[in-house]
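Example 9 (inverse folding). The structure is encoded as follows.
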């Protein structure tokens, strides 16, 4: 949704109090749902409005470039309530879960 994600993070950092926290969530570009989309020509996640795709390392680099410390990085599942196979695989391999969850801290 952001044309300039680095600018957004820098603005968040400017507005936060010292040692303030920022929570970010975004779809995971390396998730099973993404891979499923490559093979079935159908993406199971709704990325309407997303300009950039992020995976764990690319988002980690961006938030560090903005000067944030990282408190928590998790791969989480918001979807797949009915797809038991994808849920089981994602439980075994968390990096394949459909969403990234970051808690950041301003120095």
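The amino acid assigned to each position is listed next.
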């Amino acid at each position: 949704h952001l044309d300039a994600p680095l600018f957004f993070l820098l603005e968040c950092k400017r507005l936060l109090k010292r040692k303030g926290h920022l929570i970010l969530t975004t779809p995971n570009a390396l998730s099973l749902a993404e891979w499923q989309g490559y093979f079935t020509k159908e993406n199971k996640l709704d990325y309407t409005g997303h300009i950039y795709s992020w995976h764990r390392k690319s988002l980690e680099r961006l938030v560090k470039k903005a000067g944030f410390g990282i408190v928590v990085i998790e791969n989480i599942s918001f979807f797949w309530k009915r797809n038991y196979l994808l849920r089981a695989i994602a439980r075994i391999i968390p990096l394949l879960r459909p969403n990234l969850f970051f808690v950041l801290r301003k120095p």
